[in-house]
Structure formats: structure tokens, C-alpha cells
Amino acid sequence: MTEAVHDRPPGAAPAANLALRFLLELASLAALAYWGFDTGRSAVADVALGVGAPLLAAAVWGTFAAPKSERRLRGAALVAVQLCVLGAGVLALAVTGQPVLATLFAALVVLNTVLLHIWEGEPKP
Fold first, then answer.
1. Contact 22, 116 (CB under 8 A)
2. How many other CB atoms are found less than 10 A from the CB of residue 65?
3. Would you kindly state where each structural domain of the chain is located, as residue ranges?
4. What pTM did the predictor assign?
């Protein structure tokens, strides 16, 4: 019996990687909120951006990337949406003067995405 290339390896590593993805999603929303509250030129703009940016990102993720969404994308389109939302978190950290955090966050996103692709393969419909 041969193993398929995309079979999930036994053990806790794939589960830990899925948990990491969830934490990266939350961290991206937090980074967008931080950016928003740091960027506005007035209290109203701070609140609008600090609340609006993460809400928009969460809406995009929930519509197109959430596992149980009826509109969940597949393949490259799914990866593109995921990387755009997570990349927005990286960019938010970078432009608010947090280059070390942005670099660390970007490295974790890339590693996590590669491992998800290897272990999960193409999402099943």
C-alpha cells in the first residue's frame, strides 16, 4: 500500500499547524486594528479604521476562506485570498513601525501556508 503525497502525517504536527493558522488569522485582525487606530488623523478616523479594517478582513475571510462557507474558494484563489488577508496584517505591522514583528509574522504565514499545502493538499469539496 502506498501513501498519497498529500496524506496527513500521523501525530500532532498537522493539528498544531491548523491551530497556528487560526492564531495567524487572529493576529492579522489585531494588526489591522492596531494599524487603524494608529493611522487616523482624528478620533473618529481612528475608530473607523481600527474597527472597519479588521471587520472588512473578517468578512472577506468568512465569505471566501472559512472552511464551512458556501462560497469558499478552492485552489489558487483560496490561497490568494488567505494570503491577501494575512499579508494585510504583515503590511499593517510594517507601516506602523514594527518591522521585526512584520518579518516574523510573514515568515510564519509562509511556513504555515506551505505546511498546510503539503499536509492538506487540495481542499475536498
1. no
2. 22
3. 13-120
4. 0.84
